[in-house]
Amino acid sequence: MGALRALAHPRRQSVLQHLTVHGPATSATLARALQLNTGATSYHLRELARYGFVEETGANGRGRERWWRAVPGDRRFPPRSRQSPEMRLVMDELNHHAYAADLELFEQLQRAAGDEPWADAFPYSRGTVRLTLPELRAFFEEYIALLNRYKRPGADTPPGARTVLTRFLAFPAQADTAGDLTPGDPPDDEDNGVEGPGNRNSGDGDNGDQAHRGHGDRAEANRAEANNGEAGTP
After folding, report:
1. What does residue 93 show for φ and ψ, rounded to 5 degrees?
2. pLDDT per residue as tens digits for the range 2-46
3. What is the pLDDT of residues 67-111, one digit of tens each?
4. What is the separation of C-alpha 229 from the centre of its chain, rounded to a whole number of angstroms?
5. pTM of this prediction?
6. Which end of the chain is less congested by CB atoms within 10 angstroms, N or C?
7. Whole-angstrom Cα distance, residue 230 to residue 216?
8. Is 206 helix (H, G, I), strand (E, B) or coil?
9. Contact at 8 Å (CB) between 46 and 12?
10. Run of H or E including 153
11. CA–CA dist 110, 122 (Å, integer)
């Protein structure tokens, strides 16, 4: 619960997100970027480091500067069915802040992209697919395996590559009323059209992103180690 509580704090999520997107930073750099005081960022960094979410880079800065970076990893918390009422409350708080932060960052970066080539690099997809619980678990693990296929050391990253934040979100619709659907038939109101450039609605499944959670509430300690394309802690 300690690690989960440390991660659920909204300011610590902001610290982790900044380290994931912008790379290593000092407490002073984070304070300026997040409009906090250095005492607060230093405290949050120590708490995150206590549970292995961040670490010092080992690089020597000016004077007593300490540089911090997000630690990549695949951290999973128990599935909701095995969470205590207390853990559920903390997980709900964690996810609430994470969902909002993810959407805000997506919109912010999309607006800031302007007309540069990477302006088209915001794919988003919505869809539906009928699965059993074992199939959904397998679907999620295949998604994680796909991310890990593209994970590589910085030295092997080709020129022109950029950090890409990935997120995965899937959830069951309300249970069908008996007789509402013939097995294999899609819902009547399903939209198979295209929403816009790079934004696809597909009845064959959700190709969109998410991160921080998944089967068993996978927490990426700041959403996917985006630098390495890994859906675990940053």
Report:
1. -65, -45
2. 888 888 888 998 898 899 888 899 999 999 999 999 999 999 999
3. 999 887 777 778 888 989 988 998 888 888 888 888 888 998 899
4. 10
5. 0.61
6. N
7. 17
8. coil
9. no
10. none
11. 7
